[in-house]
Amino acid sequence: MYLLGYDIGTSSVKASLVEVETGQCVASCFWPETEAPIIAHQAGWAEQEPEMWWQNLKTATQRVMRQSGAVATDVKAIGISYQMHGLVCIDSEGHALRPSIIWCDGRAVAYGQRAFDTIGHERCLARLLNSPGNFTAAKLAWVKEHEPDTYARVYKIMLPGDYIAMRLSGGDIATTVGGLSEGIFWDFQSNCVSRDVMTHFGFADSLIPDIVPTFAVQCRVSATVAAELGLTAGTPVSYRAGDQPNNALSLHVMNPGEIAATAGTSGVVYGVLGTVNYDPQSRVNTFAHVNHTLGGDTRLGVLLCINGTGIQNAWMRRMVAPELSYADVNRVAAEAPVGCDGLSVIPFGNGAERILQNRDVGSSIHGLNFNRHTRAHLLRAAQEGIAYSLRYGIDIMRAMGMEISNIHAGHANMMLSPLFREALATITGATIQLYDTDGAVGAARGAGIGAGIYASADEAFAMLRHILTVEPDASKHDAYEQSYERWKTILETTNDADFTK
Q: Would the pTM of this model clear 0.90, i.e. be above it?
């Protein structure tokens, strides 16, 4: 008996099969094998075709079923993790009206800022509207103004995971409180869709799909889709969540004070709170966690996101060492010393950054000396810059009163680099615990909870496998701290800005 999990990422769609009894992943496949394209018609724009996600999901499903040898009737439930904040506009037939404006698209920042100013900063923050900023609601406002013909045809708006659930079911349209909160549509004081946001932007209530629980039988696979995917008609889709709440679930981070981290295309530190809290400068965001319930336990996820992490590492590899594998890149980078002999890389080259108050400062290289620096220095400086950007954000979370001494992470993406793990642990002073899991596996286990196959999250994650503990390296602390302070000074002086105000 198996559970099927999907992770609808920016670079690919991953499918994983988890055996119910052992809790172990028996097969994983992702598609495409090279990074999926992002459409960027203008600087700061980022779009993807929802149909591309669906075609990639079909290929990944077919491959994971062949790889595992599982038969269709063995799959008992499906869970979905997805890239957060994307806007999908559909017509009454369920067809996407335009490409999805995805999470790293910066075109709508000004719309969110005007909403923040008009509704009122304190009112927005107290209701966890996070400054409507560069989120789904603001992106819809951009469509309304710039593409009025398209907007007039919008039947419902969806997040990427909602769209995939609709396609799996053949037409059931729904979303979750977590999804609405990540789109900045949810008022946590009134526990309903935000009247402030809907009124400010002039959105009709009818655009919002019906709400289903995060853990529940939300819809079922249609007969037509089952034949395409090699599954059984009627298989329940019983869990969906944005990728960062889902990553925390994957690491069994469910309770106040627990912390999860990831460093894929973007980098995230995600901590769980039991009470409403916010950063007065709105440099981090607070959303409903997967186990947040209306009228029950308050479980909120404080999310620190850096857009330019793994994507920078991938760019540096392509430009500097295209013939090397990532493992070899890590080996070569380790040949350079801590601090890279004065070379610093600012990694913010993937859109507006929340911790920089929605500024898009770009990525840049500083201190390059043609007679001294090698590609090893460049490769290491890229990884150190990513670690420093996470430290910069973690300091904001600590100022909110969060304790961050132990970070849970999956053994994947940037966490596969010994150099990066060492830099992150040492510069933050936090012990890193690495586990054998990923977003698709977490979504599969979430599906087991939602379908009632597991009685609780504790049961679902009882066999989560610990891989490695990474302690801060006290012998390198001073060198990393000196390098970080240089990096921080470059960030703030080059951009002539104090990002704390």
A: no
